[in-house]
Amino acid sequence: MQLALWIGLCLTAAFLLRTRARVPIGAVLCLWMLVPAVGSSLITGVGFGPLSFHAATWLVLSIFLIRMLHDPWSVQAALARHFFLFLTLGVVTTAAFLASVTSSAGGGIVLLVDQIVVPVLFCLLLLAEAERAGGLVTVLRTLVLSLVAIVCVIAVAQWLTNSFLFYEFGYSNVYWFGRGSGRWMATLDQPLALSLAISLAAPLVAGLKQAWLQALMLALMVVGVLITQSRVGLAALALTVAATLLLARMRAWIKAVMVVGAAAAAAVIMVSPLIAGVAARVVDDSGSTQARSLALDYFLSRWNVYALTGDGIGSSYRLATQVGLETSFENPILMYSVDFGIVFALLYFGSMAVIVIRKGPRNGYKGLVLAGIMAVVIPQTYSSLATRSAAGILVWTLLAMVIIAGDEAQDRAREQRARQAHDEAAAADTARPPGALTPAGPAG
Prior knowledge:
Elements: H1 2-16, H2 22-34, H3 41-44, H4 55-70, H5 72-81, H6 83-101, H7 109-132, H8 136-161, H9 168-171, H10 191-201, H11 211-228, H12 231-247, H13 252-270, H14 274-283, H15 288-301, H16 315-322, H17 332-340, H18 342-359, H19 368-377, H20 391-431
Helix pairs in contact: 1-4, 2-4, 2-8, 4-5, 4-7, 5-7, 6-7, 6-18, 7-20, 8-10, 8-11, 8-20, 10-11, 10-12, 10-19, 10-20, 11-12, 11-13, 11-14, 17-18, 18-19, 18-20, 19-20
């Protein structure tokens, strides 16, 4: 009954806001960032089973349905412009679905829908919305940065109070709960999911106009990453801070002040309790590097088994348990290869790389190229897209922003060439002597 009410609410909101689709689109990101998968049952009433999709999934499906009824032309335009991209993603999704439904173990459909199908569909919706009106990249940048700031504040509160604050009933059902590691995740599903969100959003700070706001956001993000104790996240954030300071177009004295401020903040952090967790993981990574090495060695010894097909979504977890690994394969390419085949896994992640390579350069938005690179690279450092979390929706939102920005840059270049050709033609007409005849073509 509760699920039916939620679906009805999603459909109603999508219909009433069909001409203001950016409101429910923003709500999708808010839901994934503020409601973890383990807490979604509070909204939907379904915690397990084939209908236990995240609450945001039902909203995305509702928005897409209303869009197809109200304005299918924008979706058709987006599909036509990016036909080969969505054809490739459609083939990958079909392969993953067939591998899952034909698997003897069964299951995995919820993960497939939450992490692949709906994030790709959400990307298509964003491209369709961009066809209707401009400014979407800026809106998404503002929303993503705002949500990341909120979850960083929540993580700080968790660290200070040593308490989950929210959704403890859900977190208590996952295996890592209660380890006393001091790693916090705000309202996301894992500490590394929070680190991923921060790492993807950090390059977007370069697009903010106020230097003080840039400094404040980056400082908050550094604290957030330290609380997650993510070494990769900290390295990614250090790269972002360096790029922001070195490439920012601002007066020299402002840049000098920001550099001194960053150095002072780093000095304070190095003597604060925040650094203890990351430092301990650098000294002793609890065997995570060795686990990744063992997983890779095992996969390479049997890669031919998974060349064209896999054992269904989620099967990589079962395989890791069977071969005695204490963790998963810790890499979505390896995990998807086991789930639905190496060829289709490479097609999926290769599509992401192609997006950044083709649409990223010279798109006119500061930091967006780096954010796109982060969206492709950082998820490969843990199970990210192979577990239920905000990773899928965040990655495809960033990639959609890269695509939209690239399309806008191409449109501007096309308009400039057309204007230049028109001006040259007009100048040629003006320079032609009065009464001069237009040169005749060849005689017929």
